[in-house]
Each structure stands twice: as structure tokens, then as C-alpha cells.
Write a structure and sequence with these properties.
about 160 residues, alpha/beta, Purple Acid Phosphatase, chain A, domain 2, five-stranded mixed β-sheet, 3 helices, 10 strands
């Protein structure tokens, strides 16, 4: 299962939409900071399941602050990350939250810095920012039937 993960689009959707349309993944994830950008993904690829959470810049959000999703045999915690103080470089509370929820994968954003790491048996993937700055990126996560997970940060 291939999952395209975007975050922090802040109203800039062209590159995100182009990448999603070229990949045609099995699932899409938008991790907040411009909820209407997730709506654009949904309209562009209505046949692809879209999972979304709100970010700290989303005013009156419709999406939840976090979500636990099953991608095949893998449980994933989706969150923007700001409630776990990730902007201070602290990933431990997010790892603990994932472990408590039985998740081996966390998809988060907020920092605008891409990350692909494993801590305490939990894979942490931050796709970076798809919308602002010179280093725009997204993540392509692949989940295998045996529960294995790979993640690649790709430039936009």
C-alpha cells in the first residue's frame, strides 16, 4: 500500500496536486495547516481515500486534531504535531502516545522539516512542508502485508 503524505501546505496546492496525480497512491494523508488544501486533494482524486487532521493554523477546523488509522496491518497515529511540542525537537511524548494507542507509525507535520526516523519501535515520518519555503517536500510511505514500513522524503 502506497500512501502520499502532505503537510503544511498553507494555501499552496499546485505541487502537491501534481505529485498526488502522478503517483496515484492507495491513500492520501494531509496533516494540517490549510484544511481547504485537503479539500483540493479530495476533489482531484475522489477515488483515493483521504485521511486528514487539522493543524495549529486551521481556524474552526472540521478535521480532528488526531486520528488513528489502519493501513493494512499497520496502525498509524496521524497528527499535526504541535500538541506534542515537536517544534522543540521533542518526539518522546508523541512516541509514547503512539505506543499507548498501539501504533507503530506516526505521521506528523508542523515543523516544516522532513523527518524519517525510528524511536522506541515507532516509525516517525514528517513530510516537511508542501507549501512554503525553498525546500518543499512530501513523504511516500509504503506499508507491506507483513507489517513492514518504508518511507521516503521526496522533493516537490
Amino acid at each position: 500500500m502506497k500512501i502520499a503524505v502532505f503537510s503544511d501546505t498553507h494555501g499552496s496546492t499546485a505541487r502537491m496536486l501534481r505529485a498526488a496525480e502522478e503517483l496515484r497512491p492507495d491513500a492520501l494523508v494531509h496533516l494540517g495547516d490549510c484544511e481547504r488544501d485537503a479539500d483540493c486533494l479530495e476533489k482531484a482524486l475522489p477515488d483515493v481515500p483521504l485521511y486528514r487532521v487539522c493543524g495549529n493554523c486551521d481556524v474552526s477546523p472540521r478535521a480532528p486534531a488526531e486520528l488513528v488509522v489502519g493501513f493494512g496491518p499497520v496502525r498509524a497515529l496521524l497528527c499535526h504535531g504541535h500538541r506534542y511540542a515537536v517544534d522543540w525537537g521533542r518526539l518522546d511524548s508523541m512516541v509514547y502516545a503512539a505506543q499507548e494507542k498501539g501504533c507503530s507509525l506516526v505521521l506528523y507535520g508542523h515543523t516544516h522539516r522532513a523527518e524519517n526516523a525510528e524511536i522506541g519501535g515507532v516509525r516517525l515520518v514528517n513530510p516537511g512542508t508542501a507549501g512554503v519555503g525553498a525546500a518543499r517536500s512530501f513523504a511516500l510511505v509504503e506499508v507491506f502485508e507483513n507489517g513492514g514500513v518504508t518511507a521516503e522524503i521526496r522533493p516537490l
